[in-house]
Amino acid sequence: MNTEAVMQLDLFTHRKPATVHAFPLDRRRKLVNDAAEALNAKSYSQGKAHWTRLVNRIRKEMLASGLSVQMIESEIAAFADAVSRELNISQHYRGSDGAA
Predict the structure, then answer these.
(1) Alpha-carbon gap, residue 98 to 29, rounded angstroms
(2) Which of 58, 63, 67, 100 is the most exposed place for a label (fewest CB within 10 A)?
(3) DSSP state of 26
(4) What's the distance, Cα to Cα, between the start and end of the chain in Å?
(5) What is the pTM of this model?
(6) What Pfam families has UniProt attached to this entry (predicted)?
(7) What is the per-residue pLDDT for 1?
């Protein structure tokens, strides 16, 4: 039997802070599509209230995950662009006879 002392490495003594990399909001197709569908089905005032609640929820979740305010605002702006594009596409096809 080996009588040498076995040294246990402490894996938690020199921890670097974690870096959070969020999956880009504008690439989350279900989130984008659901937001666009909900806005499409509501009146202007209902849509505005829905959008405010959605963005506030997303902002709160991202803050809790440790993302910087700058990154959150950038993600929300890209998400808003993606939702806007989705709304424009659906309105284009809804307003046409299906021929592109």
Answers:
(1) 23
(2) 100
(3) G
(4) 80
(5) 0.72
(6) DUF6074
(7) 55
User: What span, in angstroms and rounded, lies between the C-alpha atoms of 15 and 40?
Assistant: 47
In this predicted model, what pLDDT tens digit does every residue of 12-21 receive, in sequence order?
Answer: 666 676 666 6
Distance, in Å, from the CA atom of 78 to the CA atom of 84, rounded to the nearest integer, reads 10
Cα dist from 93 to 11, 36, 44, 85, 87, whole Å: 57, 14, 20, 12, 10
- Among the listed residues 49, 44, 33, the one whose alpha carbon sits nearest the alpha carbon of residue 87: 33
Q: What is the pLDDT of residue 90?
A: 80
Contacts of 26 (CB under 8 A, 6+ apart): 32, 75, 78, 79, 81, 82
Confidence (pLDDT) at 52: 98
Mean pLDDT of each 10-residue bin along the chain, 100 residues long: 62 67 87 96 96 97 91 96 93 62
How far apart (Å, rounded) are the C-alpha atoms in residues 16 and 64?
Answer: 19
